[in-house]
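Justification of computing resources. Each target in the renewal requires a structure prediction run like the one illustrated here; the chain below, 180 residues long, is used simply to show the kind of job we budget for.
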Amino acid sequence: MRLTLMVPGATDGTRRSVFGDAGGLIAPEVRPARPGTMIVCAPEPACVETARTVAGAAAGPPSMDALSAPDFGRWTGLSAEQVMERDPAGLQHWLRDPDARPHGGESLAGHLGRVAALLDAFAWPDAGAVIVASAFTVRAACVHALHAGAASLLHLDVAPGATATITRNGTTWRLRTLTR
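Resulting structure tokens:
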């Protein structure tokens, strides 16, 4: 079984490295999926918009809260530069410790656990599926497939418009590709 994970194209927020970016796409960068392909998405606006394009439907595929980006608490809506100015110690702690929650939201380890639980428990079709989600969520899915652990989450670059493919045989996930 194969899952194709897609990151929406650039938004104003991704260009400014905004935590918890809820902006719309600047320009969609996707092709429609094959008819009959299961498509699900995260609830963020750029994910929903990209999923509609992939599905080729105005209504769009269902969104799953478990696919959402991490909750960045007090940092939501702030750029990385603003967080560096306002909470440099918190940012350094967050960058070093995947269990850290200096913003009061969700830790990176918690986000990885949430995404891993969905990947492992959901009844994905044998034919596979397309998932449209944030770079953080695609990164978490790839790290889960690699069994690399939460400390490696920030050591994997996943850009806007990137696509990853993970495969599962029984209960074992593998990372097949990560491309831009």
